[in-house]
Amino acid sequence: MVDRYFRVKNFVPETFWTIKVKLRRKEIDVNFSWARNRLFDRPSVIILYEQCIRAKIARITKIEKKPKEKWKPLPLTTVELQKAATRLLGMAGQHAMNIAESLYNKGFISYPRTETDRFDKAINLRALVEKQANSNPLDRRWGQYSRDLLNGGFRQPRNGRNDDKAHPPIHPVTYVNPGTLSHEENRLYEYIVRRFLACCSENAKGLATEIEMLYGGETFTATGLIVLERNYLDIFVYEKWNSSPELPDFGLNEQFMPTEALMNEGRTSAPNYLTEADLIALMDANGIGTDATMAEHIQKIQDREYVNVVSLRGNGQADDSSEDRSDADEAPAGGGRGGRGRVRGARGRGGAASSGPRQGHSMKKYFVPTKLGVALILGFDRMNFETSLGKPFLRKEMETKMKEICEGRTTKAVVLEQSIRQYQGVFNQSQEKVNVLKAASTDAFVGRFLIANKGCFLGMPGIRLCMSPKTG
């Protein structure tokens, strides 16, 4: 989180240029995208743009139509449940797991802590679908869909790569009348049922068209999609796959004069802060915690006030009207630059760039480190440990060793001895360099206080800056 914070704060926007070509035919606007996407050198783009303008005539060099599928979801694991709960249902991961455990204890769903994303062939999945098919006739959410699956629409779920050999993927065990559940239990149970039924459905199918055009020596492409069969999308309402405007007919080697050709200017924008779904995905990729403990780790750093959960716009920009602010807005600059980042609003040649987020962007919750969290990581980095405490390496190494115990490649005694020796060394070095951590805290708290007040207290007698016992 601190690394992402510095990438956002230290981001330097860069201007780029691109070429957009449009053809209007049969009352349809066909927008062609530049194969180069964008370049950061304006003179080069001007030369290429002028070549297009001088050429005047464009030629269709490729027309390709091919079937396209949108794959149904994999069976549900704990990590995926937490990500979906935070991203789609607006629930904190820990809260979602508490609800899932409540549903499990009531006998409504399977055990909610599992790394397995494939169903064992011995499980009678059709029988589970049949329980949903026999739902309350007044509950019209998925009863008819379940019956359609049993009448020929059922397909075996996809097999993921993970199997913990302990528990199956999360799935509904029985139908539950919505009136017997609380509001949030209903929402999570509904997601689990819809995901399970989607797993037992057919992939969505469509027809994709790609057209390639040569204009002034530059390649441009236009794409279209017609959704032919929605299949699992009819039940899994959390995903969208819509037909694009139908492309007019083109002939191979057909020549025409584009209706419009513009050289557009835009600026890159900083990356977003991390949502809880982003964080869970990164923890999973970096081996931090297990499916059973990730949500607890995330809650712990909030309880210790290392991070705040801040409401920001859907594009990751702060909402000026929000009163929910993070202390990290005053944190000291540092860390690496975040690269060229994402595309912000583009403008036509000679036009004005858009400024600020567009109205109507939904609010999302992001994790932003507090001064205390930033100070902790800066202090760890400055202590120059052989294995950084500000990165996930130690934790990942520990998880790897425990898996090796499970696989019989090492023993508990060996891992315990190695780990104690390793952490003893880190502890001793921390004791020796504790003043480095204190100095980092001073930089983050006192230094920011003076900067925020434009140095007006510097050199003034009778002023004492105190840090609370809580922050060291």
- Architecture per CATH nomenclature, i.e. the level-2 architecture of the domain at 15-71 and 204-268: Distorted Sandwich
Query: Which consecutive residue ranges, at least 5 long each, have pLDDT under 50?
Result: 318-340, 343-360, 449-472
How far apart are the termini? 21 Å
Strand order of the largest sheet: 6-3-4-5-2-1-7-9
Radius of gyration: 28 Å
Instruction: Count every helix, treating DSSP H or I runs of 4 or more residues as helices.
Output: 13
Structural category is alpha+beta
What percentage of residues falls in helices of 4 or more residues?
25-40%
Overall outline? flat
| CATH homologous superfamily classification of the domain at 15-71 and 204-268 | Topoisomerase I, domain 3
Name of the level-1 CATH class of the domain at 15-71 and 204-268: Mainly Beta
Mean pLDDT, rounded to whole units? 84
What's the order of the H and E elements? HEEHEHHHHHEEEEHHEEEHHHH
Reported for the largest beta sheet, the result is: 8 strands, antiparallel
Q: CATH topology of the domain at 15-71 and 204-268, which one?
A: Topoisomerase I, domain 3
Beta strands, count: 10
Strand-residue fraction? 15-25%
